[in-house]
Specification:
By secondary structure, this protein is an alpha/beta fold. The chain is built from 2 helices and 8 strands, in the order E-H-E-E-E-E-H-E-E-E. It has a single domain, classed as 2,3-Dihydroxybiphenyl 1,2-Dioxygenase, domain 1, CATH 3.10.180. The chain starts with a strand and ends with a strand.
């Protein structure tokens, strides 16, 4: 589960920007606090609201986050087109599309909470 400051903004990034479909929603007081998302290939992702200074069920603090503990990788058909689409939606491009020695084309985009998302595809 990704911790989100603004769940609606994050849902828009992952659903509208990267093609995830919502499969589950939990609301508290009429406001969503958790959503599950899925890609056509079966990949799944959870997004949840974590209050600043709050802790999880495990009792460990979840905010503030210092640094990033992981990078999310999302495969797509066309890295350049995906990055331009996300840029057009106002998301920061952290690393412009480039070919890698291992045979993929990659780029990094920041999600609404600052998580780095690698957008990647096999080189044509």
């Amino acid at each position: 589960m990704l911790a989100c400051d603004d769940l609606q903004r994050s849902i828009a990034f992952y659903a509208d920007g990267l093609g995830f479909q919502e499969t589950f929603r939990f609301e508290d007081g009429g406001e969503p606090t958790f959503v599950a998302l899925k890609l056509d290939d079966g990949s799944q992702l959870g997004l949840g609201v974590v209050p600043k200074g709050g802790s999880g069920i495990h009792g460990m603090p979840q905010r503030p986050i210092a640094g990033r503990f992981f990078e999310l990788c999302v495969y797509c058909d066309d890295v350049d087109a995906s990055v331009e689409f996300l840029r057009g939606l106002g998301h920061p491009v952290l690393v412009e599309p480039a070919d890698t020695p291992w045979g993929e084309r990659i780029a990094y985009v920041g999600d609404p909470d600052g998580h780095p998302v690698m957008v990647t595809a096999a080189k044509a």
